[in-house]
Amino acid sequence: MGQWNYMAWVRGRLLIMSMLLTGREVRGLRYQRGSLSGMSVKRIAGASAADVVTITAGTFIAFAFGADATARHHFRSDGTFDTQQNNQTAVQINASTDWIIPNSSAPGAYRVRHTAESGDTGGPWTPAASINTYVALSTNRIYKVVDTTTTLTTRSVDYTAEIDDGSVSQDSSAMTLTADREDF
Length: 184
Description:
Layout: H1 3-22, E1 30-36, E2 39-45, E3 52-53, E4 58-65, E5 69-75, E6 81-85, E7 91-92, E8 100-101, E9 111-119, E10 125-126, E11 135-136, E12 141-147, E13 154-164, E14 169-182
């Protein structure tokens, strides 16, 4: 590498490092970062604000006494991410992150894929038709596990949720849904 090429390479690396360390815009490039439960989203974009896709990792447990228990995750077409226990009102997990910020960028070409990793991966995990397949977020996507047993059984599934922009993965996170019906 000639001296001129080497110097240009060094200058480019210094600009990128400066941008990453300070979080400021450098020569029309901007660095944005969000961090959730060990997951990081990093994006270098042009001068306009970029969409930031994040998925809040977590475990959600639904409990019911004498009735079916249902634990749900909702990836909504308006950009929000909610949980719901049984037939109660869905609760937004984290308004500062949702699945996309700003929410006005939803649904766009974004898609979600759920990959069942362990637990009750063959049922009562629904909807089974969209497991391991990207589905458009132009429609609300609800993933749930149900415990209808009257014995001391708990239904649970560990899965990975991944969102892409139609072609490139934007973020993924480990999730757990657990439903526990108890009849004494």
